[in-house]
Write a structure and sequence with these properties.
The chain is an alpha+beta fold and 381 residues long. The chain has 3 domains: 119 residues, DNA methylase specificity domains (Adenine-n6-DNA-methyltransferase TaqI, Chain A, domain 2); 101 residues; 137 residues, DNA methylase specificity domains (Adenine-n6-DNA-methyltransferase TaqI, Chain A, domain 2), CATH 3.90.220. It contains 11 helices and 22 strands. The termini are close together.
Length: 381
């Protein structure tokens, strides 16, 4: 049996009852307090007192965020409140189930319908008239309730699977820290100042003039997960690059270490082209006192939290170069350094393999809610 197709506006309407936010004492719901996709409301996330003009809502309403509709924020409040005027309270009619309509609004198909007709480029807003003109399938009210309950059951199972996968991922990611503690804690290796066996330099602290094409300038924010992230790179002229490189040339095998912001995040350089660095320390081996740079890489990862604790600064953390040079590092014999580095490299590779598999599972799990909603509302006309 096919379902009737009706306009969304035939089963619910905008309820823009205005509240004076300055004089009202009822709880305020801000844009950031609604979670994408799930619609969960986190009242503890309230970061503002509320603006002067608000809309009122209660447990009868569906709250639809019209600002940046691609964020997919559709909430079902359970108490009286007031919200930003960028959130539209929709009031279902007696012929429609509130939960059924909310799940319809969370569909990818609804977002795809709304987005081409939004207004604004940087901060798009849904055209509510266009949204309310959207045709939706409407079975009898008891069937709506059954469908909504079944969707809720399936989504709860997906959320349970997601939480289990996230716990597995956290446990897998914690393995590397455990490996490092096992290696570096409780040993009786000789210690020496880092500057005794490493040439530690820093890149420029100035901001050269950026150009459209030129030499990449790697900054602290570009060091992520043991690699250089080239997705947000600035470029400088050849003259600026040469000036920086005269003092702080980066070579293959060097280690880069962030000194500002998120301290650490070491990266072993495997350079395919020349680049300069800014607010980044460069660890180079000293020919007079050989050291295994892979061992130093893992040593720096292990000490990252220690270095963070010694950083200073206001808005952004900063670690002085002198501190890095004076810090005493464990320095076992060269053959032991090689053995440690090889052992950790194998263990890290195993961890990465496990993490990759779990992340692949999470991708599948994250795609399931959209598939559940798509299937639930697929009807033959």
């Amino acid at each position: 049996m096919s379902w009737d197709m009706v306009r969304l506006g035939d089963v619910c309407s905008e309820d823009k009852t205005v509240v004076d936010g300055k004089s009202s004492s009822i709880p305020y719901l801000g844009l950031e307090m609604i979670e994408s996709v799930t619609g969960e409301i986190d009242w503890s996330e309230n970061t503002v007192e509320g603006i002067s003009t608000c809309y009122s809502f209660d447990a009868r309403h569906i709250l639809y965020r019209k600002l940046r509709p691609y964020l997919n924020k559709v909430a079902l409040p359970t108490k009286v409140g007031r919200c930003s005027t960028e959130i539209i309270p929709l009031l279902p009619k007696n012929t429609s189930c509130r939960e059924y309509i909310a799940y319809l609004l969370r569909r990818k198909e609804t977002i795809d319908y709304v987005m081409p007709e939004n207004t604004g480029s940087r901060m798009p807003r849904a055209d509510m008239k266009h949204l309310l003109d959207m045709e939706i399938p409407l079975p009898p009210i008891n069937e709506q309730r059954r469908i909504a309950a079944e969707i809720e059951r399936q989504l709860a199972a997906v959320e349970k699977a997601k939480q289990a996968a996230m716990e597995q991922l956290a446990a897998a990611q914690a393995l590397n820290a455990a490996y490092l503690r096992e290696v570096f804690e409780g040993n009786d290796w000789e210690k020496a100042r880092a500057s005794d066996f490493l040439d530690i330099r820093d890149g420029t602290h100035d901001t050269p003039k950026y150009v459209e094409r030129g030499y990449p300038l790697i900054t602290s924010k570009n060091l992520k997960n043991g690699k250089i992230d080239y997705s947000d790179i600035k470029y400088i002229s050849e003259a600026d690059h040469n000036a920086i490189s005269q003092r702080s040339r980066v070579d293959n095998g060097d280690i880069l270490f962030a000194m500002i912001g998120s301290i650490g995040n070491p990266v072993i350089v495997k350079k395919e082209f020349d680049f300069s660095v800014k607010n980044v320390a460069i660890f180079k081996p000293l020919p007079s006192n050989p050291v295994n740079m892979n061992y130093i890489y893992y040593c720096l990862i292990y000490l990252q939290e220690t270095f963070m604790a010694y950083s200073s600064g206001g808005i952004q953390s900063f670690l002085p170069l002198t501190y890095l040079r004076q810090y005493e590092l464990s320095k076992p014999p060269l053959d032991e350094q090689l053995k440690v580095a090889e052992q950790l490299e194998k263990q890290y590779a195993k961890t990465e393999n496990v993490v990759t598999k779990i992340q692949a599972q999470l991708e599948i799990i994250n795609a399931m809610p959209a598939a559940i909603l798509r299937q639930a509302f697929s009807v033959q006309m």
